[in-house]
Protein: DNA polymerase beta
Amino acid sequence: MRNKEVAEKFYELAEVAELAGENPFKVKAYLEAARVIENLTIPIEDLAKEDKLDGIKGVGKSIAEKIKEYLETGKITKLEELKKVVPEGLLELEKVKGLGAKRVKILYEKLGIKNLEDLEKAAKEHKIRDLEGFGEKTEQKILEGIKSLRDKRTDRFLIGIALPIAESIVNLLSKNTPIEKHMICGSLRRMKDTIGDIDILVTSKNPSFVMDYFVQIPFVKEVLAKGDTKSSIITQEGIQVDLRVVENDSFGAAIQYFTGSKNHNVRLREIAIKKNLKLNEYGVFRLDDNAIIAGVKETDVYEALDLDWIPPEMREDTGEIELAMQHKLPTIVDYKDIKGDLHMHTKYSDGANTIEEMARKAISLGYEYIVVTEHAKALGVAHGLSIEEFKKEKEEINRLNRKFYPFKIFLGVELNILSDGSIDFDEKDLDIFDLCLAGIHTGMNQSESAITERIKKVLQIPKVKIIVHPTGRIINGRSEYSVNIDEIFREAKKYNKIFEINASFERLDLSDVNARKAVYEYGLKIAIGTDAHSTESMNNMRFGVGVARRAWLRKEDIINTKSLKEFEEFLREV
Ligand code: DGT
Ligand code: CA
Ligand code: CA
Structure:
């Protein structure tokens, strides 16, 4: 599915068009198209194939043509043309927090600022504060924004972008070339939150056919190398993909080698040597006579080293090898263990789908329940609901619960932890909710002690059960706010509170490291929620489970592995 990718292109088009001084209606139309495409539940490439693009709300003929052009050629001519008239550095300026196209234009026209360096210089020389609509505070924010952009500048890709691309490529290969086995390896198989490049391994009796096909698939922007059994391309998004065809007899050893991590593999090779064996990407060999003793299957490779097979997500050399030696690896949670999604938004607030649509999606995913959690109405928080509106939502949920029985929808809420550590509603109003989540959405620039105190205060509210996206990070976007996570975890244990792994792939918060700490050092429980704003993003659960597996979490550590019956019992205790 290429929806996300196409949507990004239109966001880019809108930005560039605005900077180029295009008609504001056009800019708005591009933005609207981007938003709609992002939330589509059907693959946009399917709609294009069936010539149904202009049936999408917000997509007219000219936008439909642009989508088609992009899907077929990887380019939008209009965007390329506009880029020629906009100085290159301006596009980067827009990535500075707090600067939109409008402000970038003013900075360019009034002060001739064309790039980050110009911007930093002007801010330091206090030239920006005197511009209309800017001021001293904005100037300060701009300097902070430049710093955080530089800190975060990275060429790693979000797993939620990289994994669908890898899967699409494997699908294309399966359909159109004679491949037999296949495996997506590297950091993707280990479910890391960001991905340097994509590593795909296949077996085939006709490697040259596979290579010829691979270098001309629609994803390709550039072919870096083409060989008999290995080729590398760069996709439209700029991600490198390495494809290797390996021998069937070595497939297990090869996927073991190319899954990594490097540190894990280094340790394994040392263990092999001690056993008078040699381990490489072709197999496990006896040093005495060079006879191969494992290679076809990955499990055999581990067995040859007297180790239990280790799940890829654990292969970081952080203790897993020792446990595999002693046959004491924990049984980590599986995607199939997930019985419900605890965090989502619907049309009642800023979601794209109705409660009924979210419920149907959940049923199709095999869940037994969901918790619908709109934002609450704190001052200044957009799309929040009042208690009255929640009561209406509750009525609809009751109606739907009769319809979908035994599947169950619960009424939850995502409360805001305000700057002083209070929440949106009076505690007595919270009784209508089955489950209360709370998270920080504003005031993230406070000091470490202020933010820590805010969260600690909320932990004491009996009805609040789960702290969502606990560190506030946006991967490649915004760093975590400063918070003393140990202090929070310690305090939370006193009140039996739960922390979320937010499965949205821009967040993945708690991170693998923090989730492992929460459970293994503080004995806390975890909830995995997608924070979905559309049925499509409910699919992100697998990324949350990936984090949980990287954190070594077991089924019993995660509350939404409970059956509906157990979950209802748990809610009664809340
Ligand atoms: P990435 O792509 O930066 O997100 O991380 P990985 O882990 O996918 O790393 P990558 O793509 O460089 O290599 C894939 C795997 O192949 C890596 O996890 C372990 C193995 N590997 C690659 N190069 C080496 C190497 O020079 N030494 C060892 N021991 N293993 C390597
Ligand atoms: Ca890689
Ligand atoms: Ca690689």
